[in-house]
Every structure is written in C-alpha cells, then in structure tokens.
Amino acid sequence: IYPALKKLRRGKLITYRRFGRKKIYHLTPEGETALRDLYMAFRKYFAGVRAQKSISSAKSPAKEPKSPGKRNAETGRVRKASRLQKNTSAKKTERRSPKKKKLKN
Fold first, then answer.
1. Considering the domain boundaries, does residue 70 fall inside one?
2. Assigned domain for 6 exists
3. Which tens digits make up the pLDDT trace of 42-88?
4. Separation of alpha carbons 18 and 100, rounded Å
5. pTM: predicted TM-score of the whole model, two decimal places
6. Disulfide-capable partner of 81 in 35, 48, 69, 97 (CB 3.0 to 4.6 Å)?
7. How many domains are there within the chain?
C-alpha cells in the first residue's frame, strides 16, 4: 500500500499529517475530483457491460440450467449425482491395513 500512497502523494491527490509515529492521509481537492471522475468512469463502463449483457441474452435462447441430479418422484427433491451412480466396476478396490510402525530398540 505504501508505494500506492507515495504515487498518490507525488500526484498531489493526497496529503498526510503526522501524529507521533502515525500518518493520517487526506484527499486533496484534486484527489476528490480524480476520485469522482474515476467513479463516474467505472459507472459508465459497468452500465455498458450490463447493456451488452442484456442485448446478448435477448439474442440467445434461454438454456435450461443443469441439474445436479435427478428428482425423486415422490418428494420432488433433487438426489445427489453421487447417489445415482452405482458401483459398476467388477473390480473392487482392496483396503490396505495401515502399516505398523517399527519400534526402535
């Protein structure tokens, strides 16, 4: 943060006062103007992005959202995909017993 503060000080956008070992930073009138201009530029940019997004979504047909699983016919709740997959592999993985630690004599 200190390099950024130094850059802002050199640009005369902020000033500071010392209170013991602390520095309290303040915006200068030029800094307030620059901040306001930057804020308006961001608002204009994001308004353009929102407009572009609404135009592109109006052109393309709506897609069905992907479901994480199938619905239960009775309850209507979504089942997890992991529960839907059955263990179809013929070869089951064997569990290994944990290795015993050798004791030092």
1. no
2. yes
3. 999 999 888 888 777 766 665 665 655 666 667 767 666 555 555 55
4. 64
5. 0.46
6. 69
7. 1
CA distance 3 to 21: 18
- Whether the Cβ atoms of residue 8 and residue 31 lie closer than 8 Å to each other: yes
Token pair belonging to 57: 């979504």
Q: Can you give the residue range of the structural domain that contains 11?
A: 2-57
Closest listed residue to residue 5, CA positions, set 26, 32, 29, 30: 26
- Please, what is the Cα angle at 42 between 38 and 45, to 5 degrees? 135
Query: Is position 12 within any domain?
Result: yes
